[in-house]
Amino acid sequence: MPFVVLGAVIAGILEEFLPQDFITKLLPKPAVPAVMIGALLGLLFPMCECGIVVVMRRLLRKGLPLSCCIAYMLAGPIINGVVIFSTWIAFQPHQLGREMVGLRVGLGFAVAVVTGLVVHLQWRKYGNALLTPLAIPPVAIEPAAPTAPAGGVAAPAPPKQSLFARMGNISSTALHDFVDIMVFLILGSVLAALARSYITQDEIEVLSRDQAFLTIPAMMLLAFLMCLCSEADAFVAASFTKMHLSAKTAFLVFGPMLDLKLVLMYTRVFRLRLIVTIAVSVTILSLVMCVALHLVYQANGWSGLPPGAAAQSSGP
Fold this sequence. Notes:
- The longest helix has 34 residues, at 163-196.
- The protein is mainly alpha-helical.
- The protein has helices at 2-17, 22-26, 31-39, 49-61, 66-75, 81-91, 97-126, 163-196, 201-210, 212-226, 233-238, 245-254, 260-266, 272-299, 307-314.
- It has one domain (2-138, 166-306).
- It contains 15 helices and no strands.
């Protein structure tokens, strides 16, 4: 809930103070560099996935291209200072801090950028039909030039709002976004609690030991059902000490991009076609990249385990 509140407040500030098309003017015209910049916006607007949807929706309504918004929404919960530091802290006792940070940030960036480019192709074909009415950017209307009356004196410009009035506007926008998104966060949390009561870490570790390649999709499914915050999920992943590093990476990359509560939140912003596009793209890319990572470790003879666990697994 604190992160949803923070996201709602940031969204209100963006709505009140950020001029229409301001960010668009700063972005390069080509889609690829624009989407890559969008994936790095989490360094400026650090949010976990619980609050990033409302911030993304306001940026979308302020003129940020949909492909850049998607890249920010997917990568923002991974590529920000708080999550990077928490991932390092979680894995440093296992001597995997730098390795896991590099893999999580690198793969998260790649998945977000490629998915953003896929969405860009969809946008060129379907346009605003991919969005719900709440997310469609308003049509920018050029202000009319002041006309001079008969006496030759121009009409005065409308008075600027006071700071108190603008703070009221921010509060109103934040409250609307908070109520709008909390319903889906609560419902997703209930479903996640039910899922966690039936899936144990012991079952996952047995699967990791007996069927290494099945562990990657299994951890992705676990991340989807558990709905963990990206600022805390690294500590859960680090607790699977006998699990290969590729499966942990799948858990840490896939979870902040797609889980039960996020799918429910997406329905307030995206139409079904766009939700399916995002889900399929994120799932396939995460799975393929993490399987490739596992094969790279296997080909080079790297254990992909903490030093203690690697010694135990190589023993008699």
